[in-house]
Amino acid sequence: MIAIGGRSALAGGTPSSSRGLGIGIEPPSSSSPKPGFVALSDLGSVNSRLSFKGSIRIKAMEGSRTVTVSETDLNTNGHAGNLGKSQSLLSSIGNSTNIQWHECSVNKVERQKLLKQKGCVIWITGLSASGKSSVACALSQILHRRGKLSYILDGDNVRHGLNRDLSFKAEDRAENIRRVGEVAKLFADAGVLCIASLISPYKRDRDACRALLPDGDFIEVFMDVPLQVCEERDPKGLYKLARAGKIKGFTGIDDPYEAPLNSEIVLTHKGGDCDSPIEMAEEVISYLEEKGFLQA
Q1: Do residues 139 and 150 touch, judged by C-beta distance below 8 A?
Q2: CA torsion angle for 112, 117, 119, 123 (degrees, to 10)?
């Protein structure tokens, strides 16, 4: 079906001396069994230069099967092959048009067998200074010691690169969570235990991330720590700046935090000496073991 470095000609037209990749094309009414050649560089304009209407036939050079392609098919970016089937699989998502999902023979199950674990997203949410990052790091350390592969998507870290173009306005915060959710989904599909640690204050955004994954693969961990405690900790000094009016739209001060109602795991501040990050992380480990995520 493919000729490299051969002469090319349009069906029913004159030969071209352009060299390159070619495919054989012949009109269905042609009395000659010999196909002409169309250079791939010419395919985009084939329809306007063909001297016939209707279907054409693309013939294999080595005796493989002939594929019939309609005139309409040639308008779909000029790709040859079973275009009717391919065209039906094209989709448009957002501003992306004429895209198609490509499957690979190495799938999530195979990757999980290799890693001896099941990919999932552990989404840690809570106020600033509630201990999200500390628990995330403790959890990652425990998993690493057990020979399990994890990766942390930290709210501040992703804003150093992937999301550095986003502010803290409501619409940008929503986009921040959407992007992290999509990246976390890819990690989970790779078989990795993905730990996302973000304030993620709005329920609708967290629910949208949950909807990206199969049932059970999104594990919401709520750091249930009172605002007063978080404000007393204030390791970055952000609450003080927010109270002074130097930071606008700060979660818990002049922007709401919508606490989860049905989290898989709730890590509660019990007053006085609270549990250490390691102890809290062990609660998450227990859940992962119970649900079978630490084995393939």
Answers
A1: yes
A2: -170
Tens digit of pLDDT at every position of the chain (296 positions): 444 444 444 444 444 444 444 444 444 444 444 444 434 444 444 444 444 444 444 444 334 444 444 444 444 444 444 445 545 689 998 899 999 989 999 999 999 999 999 999 999 999 999 999 999 999 999 999 999 999 999 999 999 999 999 999 989 999 999 999 999 999 999 999 999 999 999 999 999 999 999 999 999 999 999 999 999 999 999 999 999 999 999 999 999 999 999 999 999 988 767 789 999 999 999 999 999 999 98
| CATH architecture designation of domain 108-291 | 3-Layer(aba) Sandwich (3.40)
User: Catalytic residue numbers?
Assistant: 200
